[in-house]
Amino acid sequence: MTKRPSGDVVIVGAGMVGAACALYAARAGLDVIVVDRGPVAGGTTGAGEGNLLVSDKEPGPELQLALLSARLWRELAQEELAAAVEYEPKGGLVVASTAESLSALTVLAAGQRAAGVRTVPVDADRLRDLEPHVADGLAGGMLYPQDAQVMPTLAAAHLMRASGARLETGRTVTRILRGPDGAVRGVRTDRGDVLAPAVVNAAGVGAAEVAAMAGVEVPVLPRRGFVLVTEPLPPRVRHKVYAADYVADVASDSAALQTSPVVEGTAAGPVLIGASRERVGFDRSFSLPVVRALAAGATRLFPFLAHVRAMRTYVGFRPYLPDHLPAVGADPRVPGLFHACGHEGAGIGLATGTGRLLARTLTGAGPELDLAPFRPDRFDQVDSPHRSPRPGRPAGRSGRAGPFSEEASP
Questions:
Q1: Stretch (H or E) spanning 273
Q2: Residue 91 half-sphere exposure, CB side, CA atoms within 13 Å?
Q3: Closest CA to 276 of 321, 315, 322
Q4: Can you give the pLDDT of all 410 residues of the chain as single tens digits?
Q5: What's CA 354's distance to the chain center, in Å?
Q6: In angstroms, what CA-CA distances link 121 with 106, 116, 127, 139?
Q7: SS3 10
Q8: Which uninterrupted H or E stretch holds 397?
Q9: Are the CB atoms for 124 and 138 separated by under 8 Å?
Q10: Which of 8, 190, 268, 348 sits at a 20 to 30 Å CA gap from 107?
């Protein structure tokens, strides 16, 4: 006898992207089940800074997804979620230390502005009007009023709760179930089957493993990042402030360590300091050279931090894809399989747009954005333009991730 479905869709992964997919799928009328071997936001989401950024995106598909996501985050904040998730529309300030980097930032901002981003040039002598404690000697900067921040674990928990989805934590997915026709019919876990005609792979750095359970490849790799946390302070850093070099580091395909200063305050008082990137697998070992580099970069931007105590550090893994674009949408190789993964360090910010696009795809409605650049099978197509990195970026590497965890990143 054929078993009856448990629901309309099973979402694998209870991080920020999984929570957003659950919210928008439920609002579209679907009966949603979320499965994760750990708790909500128990993986990389819990190691994130909570950035909702448009400032670090080059013109193209990711920026369009970021703009959609920013609008949806604002709408959610207006639904009385703002205080609950510590939503702060603080804006971002990108600073340049040299005339050359300021020129490159100005060119980037012009392209972003043409795509719909609000940008405000800031002369060197006006930087302290925005950030009174910023270092002297900077060449200038660019203000991005649309940048915002949330507290990631709170946000994921509240989105999951607001979805009303059935949450099955402590269940490890071991297999994607498929029928005789090859179509998805649910997942097998260590505590029994969960049946549904659609499965969403929102497993973050574990997305490659989940895809492999269905017999397909989505080459997500982990990209490690540390965050340094200071003692609680009175408000001194008003915006998310980072060096212009950060955008290039985000775009890089290098496996080697890269650091660029990123500094922002929080509603609770501590200052968060990043950002580092390196591909070292799932190695969670503490790295004193990385933390020293983060501290040095932060004090170059804000000299007062040299006299502030660091209370702790934490580490997370960004789910990296070779062309720096996430995999979003239906997988044409397996009917009923959908992906929402590979957002690298932007998973928290891009979660709402991803969830909205997935929900519209699941229900047969037309998505607001063209999903072709995000096709999950684009890495199978050697001659596809989507296999190549975006213009000006070196070729990436593909591979298969290891142990499965949730999405998002520091």
A1: strand 271-277
A2: 15
A3: 315
A4: 456 679 999 999 999 999 999 999 999 999 999 999 999 999 889 888 899 999 999 999 999 999 999 999 999 999 878 888 889 999 999 999 999 999 999 999 999 999 999 999 999 999 999 999 999 999 999 999 999 999 999 999 999 999 999 999 999 999 999 999 999 999 999 999 999 999 999 999 999 999 999 999 999 999 999 999 999 999 999 999 999 877 765 555 666 677 888 999 988 899 999 888 888 888 888 889 999 999 999 999 999 999 999 999 989 999 999 999 999 999 999 999 999 999 999 999 999 999 999 999 999 998 899 999 999 999 986 444 434 333 333 333 222 222 223 333 33
A5: 10
A6: 8, 16, 10, 11
A7: strand
A8: none
A9: yes
A10: 348
Q: Is 269 helix (H, G, I), strand (E, B) or coil?
A: coil
Is the preceding omega at residue 243 within 30 degrees of 0, hence cis? no
CA distance 134 to 102: 16
Sequential DSSP letters for 67-135: HHHHHHHHHHIIIIITTTTT-B---EEEEESSHHHHHHHHHHHHHHHHTT---EEEEGGGHHHH-TTSP
Go through the chain and tell me how many residues it has. Answer: 410
Give the CA-trace dihedral at 8, 13, 14, 19, to 10 degrees: -60
Beta-bridge mates of residue 34: 11, 167
Q: Classify each residue of 104-124 as buried b or exposed e, where b means 16 or more C-beta atoms within 10 Å of its C-beta.
A: bbeebbeebeeeebebeebee
d(CA 40, CA 318): 17
Residue 132 to residue 126: CA distance in whole angstroms: 10
Q: d(Cα 193, Cα 270) in Å, to the nearest integer?
A: 43
Q: How far apart are CA 341 and CA 12, in angstroms?
A: 11
CA-to-CA dists, residue 109 to 102, 123, 252, angstroms: 10, 14, 19
Amino acid at 173: V
**Matching residue, tokens 């999903």:** 371
Whose tokens are 């997942």? That residue is 187
Q: Is 396 helix (H, G, I), strand (E, B) or coil?
A: coil
